[in-house]
Design a protein that fits this description.
single chain; about 240 residues; alpha+beta; Pseudouridine synthase; 2 domains; ten-stranded mixed beta sheet; two-stranded antiparallel sheet; 8 helices; 14 strands; about 35% strand
Length: about 240
Amino acid sequence: MQNPNDLPSGVLLIDKASGMTSHDVVAIARRQLNMKKIGHCGTLDPMATGLLMLVINRATKIQDLLMSEDKTYTGTITLGATTSTQDKEGEIEEEKEVPDLNQGEIEAVFDEFMGDFEQIPPMVSAIKKDGVPLYKLARKGQVVERKPRSIYVKAYELSRVELPEIDFTVDCSKGFYVRTYAHDIGQKLGCGAHLSSLRRTRSGKFDLERAVPVDALKVASREELVSSFVSLAEISLMRGA
């Protein structure tokens, strides 16, 4: 059996493709690196793309630390329809006509979701109720009461408003559900909304610049991947430790 101290450690940044789970990415990395001790920081839904941080070997000890940092997402909100999952993967629950909103009216609602506020997590989430993830209960058609969580938004930007679609960027805290953000903004605008695309572009001090695309991960050699690691020493320097 290999001594863990003889195996490489670090963080491998991945640019996740749509249509796969975060666990799928971990499974590919385990195969390509021939290592079992690999975890990920912050689940990305199958629909979402972008930055997924894999912690490898001794880096698993700083997993919670890395997951606790602020994140940046870009995405698209589609107005006029609410869904069972608050994103495009769910079934449409209610449709309404989208009023002729101008940019100022839309920004006024986004402004209401700035700073510190509370968010009720969606049923389709990994939060557990009596040890069972909510998404498993949701699949059975069950809805349970969820406690509001304190989160915050540092900044947002609207890059395109072509109703019914709004493209946005949001800087937010850990534990922030972008799908719920989209849903709640739709409720405030009076026409409902759901999240139709999502990409994570930053987590803490990490961004997509050094991220390995999933297609490259599938064919990369162990040596190539190890050379892409962000080392534990480099992470200490980045964090000012």
